[in-house]
Amino acid sequence: MTSSNTALSKNYVRLPFLLGLLTIALLITVFFSFTFSNLSYEYDEKGGSLLWSLLPEQEREERIVIVAIDEQSLSEVSAWPWPRNTMAELSNRLAEYGASLQLFDVVFPESKIGDANFSKALNENNGVLAQVPIFDKQTVLKSGQLGGALTSSNCEFPIPKAVSYLANTALLSGHEIGHITPIVDADGMIRKQPPLVCIDGRVYPSLALQGLLSSLGKKSVSVSIRHDNSLFSSAHKVEIDSYFGLSIPIDQQGNMRLSYRQSPDSFQVVSAANVLNGTAPSQLLENAWVLVGATAFGLGDVVPTPHSGMSPGVELQARLLSNLLDGRTPYTPSYALYLKLFCGTLAAAILILLAQAPSRVSSYSLPCAALLLPLGSWLLHSYFLSYDIWLGWFDVALFCLIASTLFVLADHQLVRHQHLRVFSHLSSYLPKSVAQTLLHKSPTGAIEASRHDLVLLCADLRNFSAYEESRPPEEAAALLHFFFVESTRIIESLGGQIEEYKGDSLLASWSGSESQGATRSALNAAAELQEMLTKIIPTRPPKGLEPLALGVAIERGPTLVGSIGPVNRRHHTLLGDTVTIVLRIQEMTQDLAQPILIGECAARDLTGRELESQGSFLLDGLTTPHVLFAPQSHHVDPLMDKEGSRVLRIV
Known about the structure:
Blueprint: H1 2-35, H2 37-48, H3 50-54, E1 61-69, H4 71-76, H5 84-97, E2 101-104, H6 115-124, E3 127-134, E4 142-143, E5 161-162, E6 164-166, E7 176-179, E8 183-184, E9 190-193, E10 196-199, E11 202-205, H7 207-214, E12 223-227, E13 236-240, E14 247-250, E15 256-257, E16 267-271, H8 272-276, H9 282-285, E17 289-294, E18 302-303, E19 311-312, H10 313-326, H11 336-355, H12 359-385, H13 394-429, H14 432-439, E20 448-462, H15 464-470, H16 473-493, E21 497-502, E22 505-511, H17 515-536, E23 549-564, E24 571-575, H18 577-591, E25 596-598, H19 600-603, E26 611-617, E27 626-631, E28 639-640, E29 646-647
Parallel strand pairs: 1-16, 1-17, 2-3, 2-17, 3-7, 4-6, 5-10, 23-25
Antiparallel strand pairs: 3-6, 8-9, 9-15, 10-11, 12-13, 13-14, 18-19, 20-22, 20-23, 21-22, 23-24, 26-27, 28-29
Helix pairs in contact: 1-2, 1-13, 5-6, 7-10, 11-12, 11-13, 12-13, 13-14, 15-16, 16-17
């Protein structure tokens, strides 16, 4: 019950922090979207139309045929622009082939010879010309005469207004005319076009829409804007009263979105030269709607699309017309914002659940979420796009990416903090070098040990057991704790490391690679330990107890250092004769009444004038006698502490 409450408490404390990260991610997303709106829009559009590029529809468009003014036409007919009589001949040839509607993606602003013939051909062959409204307020251009206004329609929101235009010559302006003005984004891509444009208070349809209106065979067609508050439709629609069921969804700027779902190869193209010389396939043009436009690279009518960096402009008109005929104009429904908010909230909830999972789960799942959640927002957008619904994905993906990245960084810092804490605890129980080695190894149940030449120091508090028995355990623990803390400080300051604490004794080591320096450091540490003990032991021992004393032994030799034990309970240890010898020498300090004893191997690293032989002894449990040494008295400075006790320090 206690552990469960602790886990709940940790999650409760951590939840506000996670919510704070989500808030930061939301603020960054909003800041990016508003500050870099063009960049956000570009990424949203390019990524959003990626499905069209990857999986375009390959079904051939049978209703629309592009008659291309291509390189072959320029070579066989003449350089562009062609004479109006040639254009009239082209129109008549198309009529002979059986084309039911002719849409010219070309503007004829200048009066030229043959305008009358061309005008007559347009009248007889159901031809529609193009004109170009200009939305740039800095451009002052009014060339030609506008035509094709919808007399039954009024300028109203959100129909965009143009201030300038490039129209056809007066003799040609009396025909049905539609505009071909696209909306060019900052990256040069064309993604939208207004179906209606207002110029000087009159409404003019696009070329594709005018072609659709021409097919109705009525002189006066009412086109109106309907404002829809439904969640499942666009905010505004263009409706043709005479065309039941046809409505064109438009956005707040009055633009319809151009669909690139069809592959460029699905549109059938015939060279204008083949039409003029009579070699075009008749079955292709019969009863078809024909779009006449330039595709030759030198004419400059090319635009970047999701399918190609250089697509002819007439292809865009073919796409617009195909969209209108199929009633498949992509649009953004009113519920798109609410759906994206729901997706963002769902992603936030998933991140919170993953972040509160066990460390091993969160460490793997959060980086995966940083990839999968943005991908999921794109997949959701692409799924709806297959039904001609443009949701938008980049804002949600950006939020998911930022939020999951913050969660990954926070989880990484948390894990790092936990690892540092574990390492701190580990290095407090083990030598630091051993703890660092364990960080880079997996647990194992095998013996892991290696031989080293070490100088060992063993220090033991004599009479501590009796002291501990007569005093409160808190007092004994405080005394032992202070002894270990100060001993560690002294030993580490002199280049040694504590190998283990055992009861009221400790075992320390120095690397024997420089044996003389290591032995000297151990001897100095022994002297400082003796001096330190006089400062921490009680000045008057409890009645009936002997005073505390410290016995220190030093020896050098080969030692096996490593870990043993099962995989779930390892033990760091030092093994070998040297360890046994130094422990036995420490026991002899009490028998010989010497605070410091040095084994014969360590004594070789010191000069004879510093040491005084204590004789040869057969140490307990061993079979070979060992000569023991103690520091000479004239190399020991008698010092007095504040209480008048003698202390020793090796000079």
